[in-house]
Amino acid sequence: MRVTDAMPAGLQPLLAPRSVAIVGASDDPSKTASRPLRYLRAGGFEGTIYPVARRATVMGEPAWPSLRALPALPEHAFILLPTDQAMEAVAEAVELGIPAVTVLASGFGESGAEGAAREARLKALFRGSRTRLLGPSSLGLVNLHRQTVLTANAAFAEPTLARGGLFVASQSGSMIGALASRGTARGVGFAALVSVGGEADLGIGEVCAAALDLPEVDSFALFLETIRDADAIRDFAVEAAARGKPVVAYKLGRSEAAAELAVSHTGALAGEDDVVDAFLRDCGIARVHTLEGLLEAPALLRRLPIRPAGQGRPAVAVVTTTGGGAAMVVDGLGVRGVEVRAPEAATRARLAEAGIQVEPGRILDLTLAGTRYDVMKGALDVLLTAPEYDLVVAVAGSSARFQPELVVRPVLDSAGQGKPLASFLVPEAPKTLAMLTEGGVPCFRTPEACADAIAAAFARRPPRRLAAPAVTADAPGRVLDELAASALLDRLGVPCAPAIAVPVAEAGATDPPFGWPVAVKALHPDVPHKTDAGGVVLGVASRAALRDAAAGIAAAVAAHRPGVVVDRVLVQPMRRGLGEVLLGYRRDPQVGPVVLLAAGGIAAEIHRDRSVRPAPVDITTAQEMIAEVRGLRLLEGWRGRPRGDLAALAEALVRFSHAASLQDPPILELEANPVLVLPEGQGVVAVDALARIAEEEPRHG
Predict the structure, then answer these.
(1) Around Cβ 160, how many Cβ atoms within 10 Å?
(2) pLDDT value of position 260
(3) Average pLDDT for residues 121-131, to the nearest whole number?
(4) What is the mean pLDDT of residues 172-177?
(5) Residue 680 gets which letter from DSSP?
(6) Tell me, what's the pLDDT at 259?
(7) What is the Cα–Cα distance from 226 to 293, expressed in whole angstroms?
């Protein structure tokens, strides 16, 4: 199969062009604009190259003054001109119908209001055309299987890049060069590297999707600065998983800017990084936190499939010839929530039958005896077939550097038998790493990257498709009062405490229908956090106390929020539970609808004990979320305490998460806090609610 046979026809000119125009090509080898022509020639590009410049020749080759003057229409135009001139060249390329355009220039959406306006004009040029744009701020792309080094990145002057199966897509242009050089040193082979830049048209998801069916591509690595088109990334990830081509991502940024825009606690609890992390995991994408992990993880991911939903905590076996080196891996895995487990009795018995004696513990330390082929091979044979393990890690000591065959041979001979096998080398041992890499064994140069990649692999969930939200997160919205917000919970099937609205002037005139004592709260959409404004009085037990509470609330809110007039209060029966949780939902501006479960009450933001997922969720995911909130362990019957109704909580969480599909009205934010968890078998009940709904009609299509 040819490269172009498996690629969508519309994107073949982008990733595998047969002819290229270099607009703004320089004759000066010291300038950035000279690189694409030099690299294409040095890389052996077999297609046609058209330098476009104001001179007759560029580096001894004929040049043309404009795209319009070319003797034939190129498939791809790489525009190297300054911003304003680049806009003119783009307009010319679109008018001529050139299929693919890459723009190096910056000064668009990343550079304030003027740049945003310029980017809007850039997008308008492409609207309705068949021309696709890579960039702006793109340093180009490299397709090693097509000898296409179409980039201005200085790192690609290096002629020794190895071909392989890893497809890299990066929002940072400089990182494709950094990853190429680091990967080459590490023995990683690349299929292609693409700088997507500002993604004014083509985003990282669509670019990667174009390479899904290329036979030479076996995995994907993403370097992300933000999430611009979550739906396209999710669609790509679903298809990648279906083809058995794993995806790993490194995501910059831990900004809390999104929290500043939220009216609920949910926005502060589910910060940008939490939401992106949940999104990537939900897409089946392994998110790593080390640069080496980004390069070394794909080999592991190709051998360690995504675990089905509902499986228990994964377990890892660590076998070593050096206890100290293995302990670094164990520590790294432990802090990332991955269990390194001691062998069970049956496995220990099998080890003993093989003549392998080890001390009890999480680490199987073979000591110097492990440098013998028969000892290490025997231990691996047992561990790789032990039912309690999902992965085996072999950690090698100094012999990895000075006697690589002692370490490599038993590992290579054991790979592919039973469970996945990986290796970490304690010393700096490039020769041994190369031997393991060539033999197809996932191997790691540092304990941090080893633990990072393993934890990221196990954190993935089976990817799923989600319906596009009816409105975006930035749609105009309005906040509802608590009674109206509780009505939304009723529609979703989330149990709510009974409540009545009482005019302040009539408070205390009659007994409430549910008896005494009661809670009295301000009922006004401009007072979402009532406790902060003195808008809550608890334990009210008589008509006189209700009258005083209502008047006091109105006065307190007026003092705290001048201009806000509370003329009604909400009255509810006092309820107690075994514990309190917060259920939160919002439409995140990057990844869309998300649902959050947290330890509840007024201290929710302080404790930040929470779990986040893209919405909606199913019952298995809801149970996983409950298990991730540490404070809820008290409701599992801890130390003889009564058990809470966690089954009812899981069901309520599932129903609550379907706020994502409620369209009349579309919900931008919804929060129930607190939700009381009652004793086992008695359910849960929400006693406060907050909502912000979209004011515009939902968008379809």
Answers:
(1) 7
(2) 42
(3) 95
(4) 94
(5) T
(6) 40
(7) 19
Dist. CA 79–CA 83, nearest whole Å:
10
Joined together, the tokens standing for residue 549 give 């509470």
* Angstrom distance (rounded) from CA 433 to CA 310: 35
Beta strands in 376-525 (DSSP E): 391-396, 421-425, 443-444, 477-479, 500-503, 518-522
Residue-wise pLDDT for 353-400, tens only, equals 999 988 889 999 998 776 788 999 999 999 999 999 999 999 998 887
Q: Which two tokens stand for residue 430?
A: 């490039």
Structure tokens at 620: 């298995």
pLDDT tier, 230 (very low <50, low <70, confident <90, very high otherwise): very high
Percent of the chain with pLDDT over 90: 81
CA–CA distance, 457 with 449 (Å, rounded to integer): 12
- Domains, the chain: 3-245 (3.40.50.720), 310-459 (3.40.50.261), 498-573 (3.30.1490.20), 579-694 (3.30.470.20)
> What mean pLDDT do residues 601-617 have?
77
Q: Which amino acid is at 98?
A: I
Whether the per-residue pLDDT at 6 is higher than 80: the answer is no
DSSP state of 481: P
**AA letter at 433:** L
pLDDT at residue 514 in the model: 96
Q: Vertex 57, ends 149 and 93: CA angle to 5°?
A: 60
133 closest CA partner among 87, 67, 177 = 87
Within 199-354, where are the H helices? Answer: 204-209, 230-242, 265-269, 272-282, 291-301, 323-335, 345-353
How would you class 67 by CB atoms within 10 Å of its CB: exposed for 0-12, middle for 13-18, buried for 19 or more? buried
> What is residue 406's predicted lDDT score, i.e. its pLDDT?
74
CA dihedral of residues 229, 587, 629, 496 (deg, nearest 10):
-160
User: What string of DSSP letters covers 515-554?
Assistant: -SSEEEEE--TT-SSTGGGT-EEEEE-SHHHHHHHHHHHH
